[in-house]
Amino acid sequence: MSNQALQIGYVSTYVPKKCGLATYTHHLREAVGAVKNASSPDPVIALCDPEEAGLYDEQFHFPLRRHEPADYVEMADIVNRSPIRILSLQHEFGIFGGEAGAYVLEFLERVKKPVVTTFHTVFEHPSEPYASVQAKIAARSEHIHVMNRRAIGYLHDSFDIPLDKISFIPHGSPVPDRKEQKSTRLKYGWENRKVLFQFGLLSRSKGVESLLRAVAQAVKAVPDLLYIIAGQTHPEVRKREGEAYREELSSLVEQLGLTHHVRMINRYLPEDELTALISACDLYVTPYPGLQQITSGTLAYAAGLGRPILSTPYSYAKDLVQGYEGLLLPYGDTEAWSGKIIELFTYPELLAHCEKWMADIGSSMQWPQVGAQYLGLLERVAAKTSWSMADVG
Question: Which residues are 196's β-sheet partners?
Fold first, then answer.
């Protein structure tokens, strides 16, 4: 099959919207486009709220108002009349309208192009109403893509999806640029500090308090320790309580005597700045309390950029660091976390060994490799579908 002939339609949130899924789809599309070297851009059906529709004004943008059922039907007809050969559906329950995102079923039932669905959320034990919606999406999709090997078993066991209908391709990450590490550390005042870095929309589900208590213990042995908490307050948290949670954290930092050891970056971080900061840290941390999380874009970035990781053993972290389970620590175990931090910074050769581990794991996760793998998957599905249609005809 000619790469130029395979026009891909992406269905997802999309930049300039500031959310993890929009960013992921943007980078995936760019990576696939680089491999295809196509002359025309692949179209994007961008899920949005009415006030956001005007943001999508490029020729390849097709805004879809997510809470309008009629828009899904109309968009399916547009796709059916288009030269799109295959659809890449980036699924997250919250982006589609209807209960558990059920409006997307209207689109899938009407569209006549093959669909490859990426499930960004997969439950080990799915419950209603999510289970029936996800089962119907899986049944309509020609193929399923996941970014966690454990999700293959969950989907097979829950929905009886054949194993050969599900493929694992890792979450992508930027390509590391070692030259920037020194200048970034100098720019942000990290020189002569041992830097823990955590990034994400701030909320009570990120385990920050537990790590602050571990840091309070660790600084007794590692006096130059610095814990960076980067990211804006989650929009839903800000709606409910403003910046009350961030203020609680600031109070805890003072109570624990950590004002010299903790910094918060409370603003949106552009992609290049985030990549530079992760690349420059000594240890990336995800002390999350929820153990069901099936993917983590930030942990994927840290791995792809070759940074050592400490994490709680949630689903994505366990899948990512297979064979290196010593990097996974129980949530809220202050002694275990402080002890491991002290150990890694007391024995630099051990930290360097962890860095090499992660660089090896992350070497297959960078966007050029992921884009090539994903394009290969779409080509195989499109070719198989073409043969099936020919047989029927």
Answer: 227, 283
CA distances from 161 to 29, 131, 152, 293 (A): 26, 13, 9, 21
The helix (run of H) or strand (run of E) holding residue 47 is: strand 44-48
Determine the 3-state secondary structure of 175 from DSSP: coil
Q: Is 112 exposed, middle or buried (0-12, 13-18, 19+ CB in 10 A)?
A: exposed
d(C-alpha 282, C-alpha 193), whole Å: 9
Alpha carbon distance 153, 369 (integer Å): 24
The DSSP letter of residue 5 is: G
> Nearest 5°: CA angle at 21, between 384 and 276?
115
Q: Is 383 helix (H, G, I), strand (E, B) or coil?
A: helix
One-letter identity of residue 149: R
- Quick: pLDDT tens for 186-225: 999 999 999 999 999 899 889 999 999 999 999 999 999 9
Main-chain dihedrals φ then ψ at residue 330, nearest 5 degrees: -65, 145
Asked whether the beta carbons of 193 and 219 are under 8 A apart, the reply is: no
Instruction: Evaluate the omega torsion of the peptide bond into residue 176 and state whether it is cis, within 30 degrees of 0.
Output: no
Alpha-carbon distance 306 to 322, whole Å? 15
Assess contact for 113 and 141: CB atoms under 8 A: no
**Hey, is 151 helix, strand or coil?**
helix
The distance from CA 249 to its chain's CA centroid, rounded to whole angstroms, is 25
Contacts for 391 with CB less than 8 Å, ≥ 6 apart: none
State CA 256 to chain mean position distance: 32
For residue 167, the cross-strand partners are 145
Report field, pTM of the whole predicted structure over 0.85: yes
Burial class of residue 251 (count of CB atoms within 10 Å of its CB; 0-12, 13-18, 19+): exposed
CA distance 168 to 374: 10
E strand spans, 130-275: 143-146, 166-168, 194-199, 225-230, 262-265
pLDDT in tens, 96-139: 999 999 999 999 999 999 999 999 999 999 999 999 999 999 99
What is the Cα–Cα distance from 175 to 366, expressed in whole angstroms? 6
d(CA 83, CA 61): 15
- For 258, the token pair is 């950590």
The residue among 234, 177, 196, 169 whose CA lies nearest residue 18 is 234
pLDDT value of residue 57: 94
